[in-house]
What does this fold into?
Amino acid sequence: FTLTEPIWLLFITGLVIGFWKSNNKQRIALVLTLLWFIVPSAYVIFRKPPMYDGFRHFLFILPPVFIFAGFAFEKMFAAIKTQWITISLTLVLLTPGIFGALGLHPYEYAYYNSFTGGTSGAFRTYETEYWLTCYKEAVQGFHEQNAQLFVKREPYIAEYYANENIAIRDYRAEFGSIQSGDFVLINTRTNEDVTTFKDAPVILSIQRGDAVFCVIKQVP
It folds into this structure.
């Protein structure tokens, strides 16, 4: 779901090309390469080990996908003799990733493909903006003067970008100090924005499409 759609077409095509054109010795190497992808993937799917921050701890699963996709690219470049057609086809294959990156910047790592409805469709089903990069945009877009901003998670990130008119406070350590009129910065991981001061109005929302990454609420 976090890879662009063309990679899977290239992967399947590369599988066919790789096994069709290879001899027995080469097929053993291809089978081992394919098992590199299948065995860890099956482990993740069926055993359901602890996973967080997307699946970045399992990125070692992906190289075989791109190895087989490379076979498809190699065949494509060999078969197409016209340079402008090759360039055009390459751009078509890259288009989903390019538009995804442009639409999500600077949260490119929150990309999901159309199989999930994009990042908007993945919101509240899969992890999206898990590195709290949205704190920068949230704090820089927060223009209240002499405000106390209680940050639910990792307040030091918000503090780095806050100006002198904003007092960054640790929500967890100083929860008892929160008063009416104060502000709370909450990320949407594990739907914390829904459960934290759930009736408080949202005065600022950082999002891309329908995927909300973090919000600032004002305590009633």
